[in-house]
Design goal:
The chain is of the alpha+beta class. The protein folds into 3 domains: about 350 residues, Rossmann fold; about 210 residues, Prolyl oligopeptidase, N-terminal domain (Methylamine Dehydrogenase, Chain H); about 130 residues, 7 Propeller (Methylamine Dehydrogenase, Chain H), CATH 2.130.10. About 20% of the residues lie in helices and about 35% in strands. The protein has 11 helices and 40 strands. The strands form 9 sheets. Strands 32-33-35-34-36-37-38-39 form an 8-stranded mixed sheet, sandwiched between helices. Strands 9-10-11-12-13-14-15 form a 7-stranded antiparallel sheet, with no helix packed on it. Strands 4, 5, 6, 7 and 8 form a 5-stranded antiparallel sheet that branches. The N terminus is likely disordered.
Length: about 700
């Protein structure tokens, strides 16, 4: 099964595509006289009405857009073969990383094509696992998903969250594992929160918002999150308020009870950035008895990630005065920064994660975007490294200070995620689960290259391709990126990339600025007034691929989601000549108004807002995908994707962007939007919808290049 292309066929195909696209008729989107003024500059917003996802007119527009898109996709000869390949590769047994609590092991599993993963438990790894929660039984169409599962300390009860249709809103319940039945407890209006049990098992902490106003559940701004304690057997209305900030509507809370059960550690966040605050609340004898949290660090000047509590000290991973991260110990009796003790100093690589397991600190680093894991003793002395299977991405390593073992996953662009058990004392590694898939990893290889950006900055890209492929500029190539919010893009297996590789394509990921690959300075170099660096890096990656004959502008496509959708929209505007196809998924496309919806305000740490200053407005306006569509320029083929229940990046971003793109003179290539119903930003999407959407994306790219899929 592969893609085939000749130069002559491509030339003929481009003409055929032009003729086909020129005959397309897009739904007419009504324009309104809406103008906003930003620091003296008037900006038209003719499709403002598409922000109202509840209006009959918007719903009718969605229906008509999907009709046009469906007709185009159905006519593509690549659609059914791509879906068949994607389904074959998706259909394999997958496991989540196991963890222990109360003498039981817990993990998730999917037999291959189940709509949602099922959550299991077992007394030992050799025992037959028992089903704890099966979300597939919670809805007929598979659109109800588990958002979190937290066992009580004795392992007898499960607090679990569920969400429907891809929404960020969660409901939490409690299940008794002995009976398999739910207790009467029910928690509503939870968003961006998990749960953490008190050691006595009598209740748990969680964070929630007030109920939204009528009609604003999916679009209304989310402010004033509050931290509560819920005692089992009581109504939610009786839950105890633990923390809030009436003077700062942006405060949000994450909480974790220490391994000894004696302390609640509260992480305070104000945005989607990595900087946060810390507070603590004593829990005498492992029980909650009220009290006011005490501040440890509330300057929001750095990242503070709690790792361990031991001997009256709180161990924290932080980038305070250490952009690449360090490990420090804070004396809880005198937590002033001057008294903090460095356990593990900042090194040349970015420390991305830390856990305290088996009397050891397991510290994860990125070395040129690939994972390294170093083992340190209680005093911070390095003892060893965890031997990983190769150059790729590893994660997990959870557990408690007295645990004897931990589990981790390892993956690369051509290695499906495999799970290993790590004996902390001996350093021995044993496989727990290795997937068996239709993807033959021995047929493919990955190499890491380095690209120099416009300003001289060097960054890595990872190129996966079939072994022995000839790089002569004709290879169908898909370039993926993100570039934001301190999120690192590292080599990891996915069915989308595997399908593209098996079809004969080349798959590339770019670890560009804005992410966390090289620490907080790398992240900040791609934020606010420096956001253009992100687009320059991605364009440089595309230019490198062309210059090194991996691809050509006729065989290069770009894809990204959310902030990555913004990335794709921006570079398609700035360099439409560089790409054959662009697929922005659930993208942030209106940079002047994003902060007005749901949790959008929290992204200001990366983006800034149009209200901040004339300089910030000018920077946003200069790259906002919605506002920089250039009539008269020949654009690549564009397929926009979104979900009608996306309450993270509301679909109005994609709606307005699509309407503007279709109305402009951007050349004959198709400009389509695929709007998934009963779907959100991506989390919890059922298997069937994942397969359909992502295989459509690959088929659309293949069709654009007129590549034969066998």
């Amino acid at each position: 099964m592969k893609l085939t292309l000749s130069a002559a066929a491509f030339a003929a195909a481009v003409l055929a595509t032009d003729v086909q696209a020129q005959t397309m008729s897009y739904p007419v989107a009504r324009k309104v006289e809406q103008t906003d003024t930003y620091h003296g500059t008037s900006v038209a917003d003719p499709y403002r009405w598409l922000e109202d996802d509840n209006s009959a007119e918007t719903k009718a527009w969605v229906v008509e857009q999907n009709k046009v898109t469906d007709k185009f996709l159905e006519a593509m000869p690549q659609r059914l073969p791509a879906r068949r390949i994607y389904t074959e590769l998706y259909n394999f047994e997958r496991f989540g990383i196991p963890f222990q609590e109360g003498g039981r092991y817990f993990w998730s599993r999917n037999d291959g094509l189940q709509q949602q993963n099922v959550f299991y438990w077992a007394k030992s790894l050799k025992d037959t696992p028992q089903v704890a929660l099966d979300p597939n039984a919670m809805s007929k169409d598979g659109t109800v998903a588990l958002t979190g599962v937290v066992p009580s300390r004795d392992g007898k009860l499960l607090a679990y969250g569920v969400a429907g249709a891809g929404s960020d809103w969660q409901s939490w319940k409690v299940r008794d594992l002995a009976t398999g039945q739910d207790l009467a407890d029910k928690i509503e209006w939870v968003k961006f929160s998990s749960a953490t049990w008190t050691a006595d098992g009598k209740g748990f902490f969680y964070a929630r918002y007030d109920a939204p106003k009528e009609g604003q559940k999916l679009t209304g701004a989310n402010y004033f999150q509050k931290l509560y304690y819920h005692r089992l057997g009581t109504a939610q209305s009786d839950d105890v308020l633990v923390a809030e900030n009436r003077d700062d509507k942006e405060w949000g809370f994450g909480a974790e009870v220490s391994d000894d059960g004696e302390l609640l550690v509260i992480s305070v966040w104000k945005s989607a950035g990595s900087k946060n605050g810390l507070m603590v609340l004593p829990l005498p004898k492992g029980a909650f008895s009220g009290g006011k949290p005490q501040p440890i660090a509330l300057g929001f000047d750095a990242q503070y990630t709690p790792v361990n509590v031991m001997g009256g000290k709180l161990v924290v991973k932080t980038d305070k005065d250490a952009p690449r991260g360090k490990l420090v110990a804070i004396d809880l009796k005198n937590p002033v920064p001057a008294g903090w003790k460095t356990l593990v100093a900042e090194g040349p690589d970015a420390m991305t994660a830390a856990s305290a397991v088996g009397g050891r600190y397991l510290l994860s680093y990125l070395h040129d975007a690939a994972t390294l894991v170093r083992v340190h003793d209680a005093d911070g002395k390095q003892l060893s490294e965890v031997p990983l299977p190769g150059v790729g991405t590893a994660g997990g390593f959870g557990g408690r200070w007295n645990s004897k073992e931990t589990f981790f996953s390892y993956t690369s662009l051509t290695t499906p995620a495999e799970i290993h058990r790590y004996d902390v004392a001996t350093g021995e590694i044993a496989p727990f689960k290795k997937p068996k898939t239709a993807f033959n990893t021995d047929e493919f290889e990955t190499r890491r290259e380095f690209v120099t950006s416009k300003d001289g900055t060097r960054f890595p890209i990872f190129i996966a391709a079939r072994k022995g492929v000839k790089f002569d500029g004709t290879n169908p190539t898909l370039l993926y990126g993100y570039g934001g919010f301190d999120i690192s893009i590292t080599p990891a297996y996915g069915v989308t990339s595997a399908t593209w590789l098996k079809m004969g394509g080349v798959y590339v990921i770019a670890s560009i600025r804005g992410g966390g690959e090289y620490g907080s300075a790398w992240h900040e170099a791609g934020t606010k007034l420096r956001k253009q660096n992100v687009f320059d890096d991605f364009i440089a990656a595309g230019e490198w691929l062309v210059a090194n004959k991996v691809a050509s502008p006729a065989t290069l496509a770009v894809n990204g989601g959310s902030n990555g959708g913004l990335l794709v929209g921006a570079v398609a505007n700035q360099r439409p000549d560089l790409f054959a196809a662009a697929v922005p998924q659930v993208g942030v496309m209106d940079m002047l108004r994003y902060q007005n919806f749901t949790i959008g305000w929290a992204w200001a740490t990366d983006y800034g807002t149009s209200k901040d200053s004339p300089e910030m407005f000018k920077a946003l306006y200069a790259y906002s995908p919605l506002h920089n569509i250039r009539s008269g320029a020949k654009y690549p083929a564009v397929l926009i994707t979104t979900g009608d229940h996306d309450d993270r990046v509301v679909p109005a971003h994609s709606f307005k962007y699509a309407a503007t793109l279709q109305a402009a003179d951007t050349g004959p290539a198709p400009k389509l939007i695929r709007i998934e119903t009963n779907a959100g930003h991506g989390a919890g999407k059922p298997t069937s919808k994942i397969i359909e959407e992502r295989s459509d994306i690959l088929a659309f790219i293949a069709n654009t290049m007129k590549l034969e899929v066998k």
